[in-house]
Amino acid sequence: MRTNRWFPWKRIMIPPGRPLIPKGYFLHLDGSPITLPLAHTNQTPLPGDLCHFRPSLHPPFSADRPGTTGRHSSPAATAASATEPFGAVREIPTHSLELDRTRGGAIKLNASDGSYSDGSHFGNWRWTLKAKRWGRYSVRVHYTLTRTEIGMQVRIGDAAMLKGYASRTRDNVDSHAAELGYAYIPAAGEYPLTLLTGDRSNGEGFSIKSVELVPGPEADFSGPNIDGTIELLAKHATTHSEAMRYEPKTEKNCLGFWTNPDDWAEWTFKLHGPGKYKVELVQGCGTGSGGSEVALLAGKDTLNFKVEETGGFQNWKKRDLGVVEFADAGDHRIALKPLKKSGNAVMDVQQILLTPVD
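RESULT FIELD:
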């Protein structure tokens, strides 16, 4: 829900059966304290309403919450809530091998590099986006805002508009990143990028710093299967690469063009609890290109292996690489990083399969 203690606004559908909640009071969703008000309105939300919420920095008015009675809470609960109402932020475990996360074509468009003009309803920012690679990108707008929230809309080329909101920041110095969603770049080249948002009549209360496009997975991971297995498909990977990429053709559906050993791929997924998992890799490799050395990184665990020839890069073979252990629930990452390339390409990869070990 958050990446730091400054919380973005969220759109939440009021579930059926919820009681009416006056503006300014608290609502519990999935065990987390959520505070109103609705943005720009004094209405009371009804079941089925799509509303704006953000997590509270204060203890909720909940008599059934430990340490709270009405508007008052215990000193310990108050002290904890004043700094971090959800407890300490859990960091995703890092890998045992240092990786270059700047590799792969993240694009940053600074405000000073764009043009600005006033519109009838919005301020209009324009840039020329120069993409070195095709693929799916997360679009983030960096800004400061000391006034009420402001809407944002980004369009790249002829693609559909991405829409979101800029929530208030602590001051006009430390910028915040609003993630507006994913945009797909069909091919390398130049594209017009337009940002519609608050105009300069806001003065120092609102400032655009930059627009950033960060490579993302071609499809979102949907979670573990009902039997607990986790299928990390090629399309779920984020590729930190200049040559290697996801190939969507039916007969491929894999990570391919792995001709540069500095390219690497990573999957992010969520676990409901700690546990050990058997790791299997579905790989292909053409004749004469076998023998590349690769590390599979899973937090503190590293499984090194050599790529096997399979008679063709799309001749698939499932390989048992070993067992890794995840110490807790939450988000985790698995990465594939070549250590040495032996032939024309490292390998093609279709999926990583994690199976719980009793």
